[in-house]
Amino acid sequence: MFSDIFTLPRLRQLEHLAVNKNINLMAQAAQVIFNWITHYYPKAHVLMAVGTGNNGGDALCCAKLLAQHNIKVTLWVPETPKTDESIQAFNECKQLNLPVIEQFNQLPELPDLIVDGFFGIGLNRNLDQNWQDRINQINRCGIDVLAIDTPSGLDAYRGIIYGAAVKAHTTLTFICAKPGLHTNEGVDQSGKVFVAALNIPNAIIPESSGTIAPSQEASQLKRVANCHKGTFGSIGVIGGAKSMLGAAILCARTSLYCGAGKVYVGTLGDYQVDPIAPELMFSTAEHILEQDIQVMAIGPGLSVQDRAKACLEKALGLPIKKVLDADALNLISQNHDLEDYFTEQNNTEIILTPHPTEAARLLKTSTSLIQANRVKAAQQLAHKFNATVILKGCGSIIARPDGFYRVNTSGSATLASGGQGDVLTGICAALLGQGLDAFEAASISAYVHGLAGEHYARKKGQIGLSASKTIEIIKHYLNKLIEQEN
After folding, report:
1. Which pairs count as long-range contacts for 475-482, CB under 8 Å and 24+ apart, including other chains?
2. Taking the CA atoms of the chain, what radius of gyration do you get in angstroms?
3. Which H helix or E strand runs over 4?
4. How far is the C-alpha of 400 from the C-alpha of 382, rounded, in Å?
5. Domain range spanning residue 19?
6. pLDDT tens string 61-76
7. Is 32 helix (H, G, I), strand (E, B) or coil?
8. Given 211, 244, 265, which residue is the final one in a domain?
9. 181 in the same domain as 330
């Protein structure tokens, strides 16, 4: 359950069932927060930032535990608690004579730790200016912040900010993982995220709608001695129009270095031998589309000219696995007739890898609306095109046609450079060729790509990772992942 994601309605239903079974979730959450504080900040002066709802109640119950163990704690209560449980907890804190302030500037001294209990996962509106000012005071003070369930002001499911959001050092979230902590704005606001499942009977735990865990299927890539190049798939990369050959080469090199048996490059422009990877076989796009190939990667440097559309139509009609990226997606968004190839009758495995703007074109909406609900957008695309979708970005969302999804938690700002999408497409194609199904291939591809970005950031810093340099690092992490799974 630590990696499972439940929808908000299912989570609320679970909480209701727990209350009916006399399970005190607030007391359990308070104990988890207390244990974390006493482990990492055993002698700290703790400021509890208390909201009006049950998130504030969690903070108040924890404050009682801290006070009972002689840990200095101050309550910041800007507005009176409103729920029955939080009111009761506040009264019990007052009976213990805990110091209470209404304004941050009333503190006689700065605390060592702030526990953010202003707002929880139920927030779904922009905060008024008073609450935004309080949150900004927390962010400006330079003190470590522990957020309860979600940083206040952040939508825990969509990763968007409601006017202002606490920037936490650590977030303790309860019962299940929350996608918004790992995608969009949530990555920068949440810090390190830990999930506390709490003591809930298995009988009332709902079906998960997604997960934040990486794929566990890398063991399928382990090789036996009795094999040959045909065992690991032949990949055709279709793209590389005039002045854009580099995109196709990046994709093809990545497929080669990620284990594909043979890689062909069908270009719409000039072609040549790649001196870095002379193993790649070049020809025209039309010629490659006639070859016996198991996986087609279509789109890197493809262009949207008529010839490109004809090649895409030919590829879509082939009963083989496919990865569609870049201009292949743009052509589909511009030509409604191409959508007819994505039917339930077409049971070949397909991966789409749009960035948010490409996703917006495919769904006939705006980039801002895609980013406002990344999970929903990925699910809509997967359903519409009967395909696995990687909605790229900070915390990529991998969704399959039935709606189940993964949030990829690896990655770094180092990957924000041209050509990285071509690399990701190449990984996907290579893993499809080696027998993984579309969802697992997409999940592992996003994961190892992200690990490569993290590796460079640790070793060299945030700037300077080119797409071509990423490929070698990906190869290392893919091999490492296979070894770990065996």
Report:
1. 475/257, 475/258, 477/448, 477/451, 477/452, 478/218, 478/221, 478/258, 478/259, 478/427, 478/444, 478/448, 481/218, 481/444, 481/447, 481/448, 482/218, 482/219, 482/221, 482/222
2. 25
3. strand 4-5
4. 5
5. 4-211
6. 999 999 999 999 999 9
7. helix
8. 211
9. no
